[in-house]
Amino acid sequence: MNDNDVLSNLLLIYTVSIAVVFLFHQFRLPSIAGFLVAGTFIGPHGFNLISDIGTVQVLAEIGIVLLLFTIGIEFSLSHLASLKRLLLVAAPIQVGGVIVLVWLGGLLAGVPGPQAVFWGFLLSLSSTAIVLKALAASGDTDAPHGRATIGILIFQDLAVVLMILLTPILASPSEDTLSSILLPVGKSIVIVGCIVAAAWYAAPKVLEYIVRSRSRELFLLTIIIICLGIAWLTSMSGLSLALGAFIAGLVISESEYSHQAIAEVLPFRDSFNSLFFISIGILMDWRILLQYPGVVTGLLLVVLLLKFVSGAGAVLAASVPPRAAILTGVALAQVGEFSFVLAQVGQEHGLMSGTPYQIFLSVSVCSMIITPFLMQLAPHLARHVEAIQRLRHWLPGQTTAHVLKAEGRHLHIKDHVIIVGYGLNGRNLARVLGETEVPYIALDLDGDTVRREAQHGLPLYYGDATNPHVLRHMKIDDARVLVIAISDPFMARRTVQVARSLNPKIHIVVRTRYLRELEELHQLGADDVVPEEFETSIEIFALVLRTYNMPQEFVMRKAEQVRREGYALLRRSELPELAHHLRGGTLSDVEVETCRIEEDSPAAGKTIDQLALRPRTGTSIIAWTRSGITESNPSVKTTLLPGDIIVLLGTRDQIRRAMGLILLRETEPPSGRSPS
């Protein structure tokens, strides 16, 4: 194939993808499903529009490598260590449970034992690429179910190595099975350990020298070389390219260059990653659906149910709340991309071929296509979690009922703050409350964090704030403030609703990531909602105003004005019906602002008459403060001195021009006439 054929294939692939994904977007359908459908259209089993599938698959594999690389950068070793309970408890139960259940089902169906185990291998894996992209799009990566899902996916990617080594043994069992497994595994571990140790030492030093050159091109090329190089070396030891890329990302994550590295790689990752989903769709043979509709549909339902039950049950065993377990089970319900790699190995050794292989592809691709839709519907399913929570007494570990370690232990606290979520925001709030001697207690669903902090004497307990019994244990009836600082939107809304029903007088403050949740949280009973999106905007404009020597009082008032009005000032382009108003709307056309006279202000040393704000801008000075003494309607002969505070009355535009005269520079002609 010549270069023009490669270019024409890529042009065709992206053109069809744009059309399909745009159509999906119009109906608010996930883009991942659009890429999968686009692949089925252009593949050999669809309209056969491309001539070289191999090139697409190679580019798609690069996309997976870059995806796992960026995941590794964002994850970091400390984050990985925080998932040890999931990696050591939930993940083995999920993978092992699927394998055992599929093996038993295969034996009942008359499938030979080795082939049944191999089918268990295939179905135990989930799609890292699809799930992580969906979690990132919904902002649930740091939510309890997001962390649980990621921990299990990492374990599955590691388990692929052992499954690949076991596949030839399943095809032709030998007496020396144990040594044939342990020797390759031990060899892989040693080689990977050497690669990681060398990269950990060399990569930061190499990047340090590259950064000194101040060349973005060199930095980008070095990052790509580190990513692909470590991935290639790791694959040479028997592991997957994707796992090697993840290790490379972990290496970079511990350096000070991680943020720039991920910023440089993201555009390439998104471009190549879309090819992966398209290549999966290309593999789909729609004729199998027409020939075996009952078999494919039945197997698809069995796979979805089996993986949902195994995923949800596994995280429940790791003391994850039922609602998070439901979302995790839905996220893991599909067949993974590494199952295709494993299926090819099975084909080579005679464990799968012909029609069974095509049925497996059909079921797998259908499960991938349906996953984004299921993950969108999962929060609605989780709304019924209260019915499950009523059965809490038989759930493993009594997941959310164990707020206090010792039975009969009661809290003796009153007029306190309850902090829900002990992440970054929760820790910072707890530290300030502790320093100011304000009583508080905190709740979190990370058992390791609770145990670690409790050893230092902090009032942190394990519990689910959506459970009324837990909040009663936290003495919500006697609490003054409830602060909800968690990343899970559903849990935040449910906690507000439950807390308001238990204590109608409590002041509820909610931290949310997105502005669209502000109105609903207020309707549910939240007193104050802090959306991270616009708090960042407030901080930015505050810094800009201070750069222009705006008085601190003015900046703080403007920030409070935005918060008080529900961020309507910053949302005016989105919600034009929410007009800016003064102090709750008592005066619709005028505003009142305070202004401090600085030493370098053009107004310093001038009388109010000389400043001539009213004839020049239309603004009136209605009050004047010096040394804590305020005088209303000051005389025009009053001389303004540094440190004085004047109160201005006028329209927004009039006050803006007046502030320019007082604080910045002379913007009006000296004659005192208003500009034409």
Descriptive overview:
The chain has three domains: 53-389, Na+/H+ antiporter like fold; 400-526, 3-Layer(aba) Sandwich (Rossmann fold), CATH 3.40.50.720; 581-676, Alpha-Beta Plaits (2-Layer Sandwich), CATH 3.30.70. Helices cover 62% and strands 7% of the residues. The protein has 27 helices and ten strands. The strands form two sheets. It has a six-stranded parallel sheet with strand order 3-2-1-4-5-6, sandwiched between helices. It has a four-stranded antiparallel sheet with strand order 7-10-8-9. Strand 1, helix 18 and strand 2 form a beta-alpha-beta unit. Helix 4 (84-108) packs across helix 7 (144-171) and helix 7 runs parallel beside helix 15. The protein is elongated and about 105 Å long.
What labels would you give this structure?
62% helix, Alpha-Beta Plaits, 4-stranded antiparallel beta sheet, 676 residues, 6-stranded parallel beta sheet, Rossmann fold, 10 strands, Na+/H+ antiporter like fold
Q: Enumerate the strands of the largest sheet in spatial order, edge to edge or round the barrel.
A: 3-2-1-4-5-6
Low-confidence stretches: 390-409, 569-588, 665-676
Note the total helix count: 27
CATH class of the largest domain: Mainly Alpha
Roughly what percent helix?
A: 55-70%
Would you tell me the structural class of the helices and strands?
Answer: alpha/beta
Describe the global form.
Answer: elongated
Report how far apart the termini are. 70 Å
Task: Supply Rg.
Answer: 31 Å
What kind of sheet is the major sheet?
6 strands, parallel
On the 0-100 scale, what is the average pLDDT?
A: 77
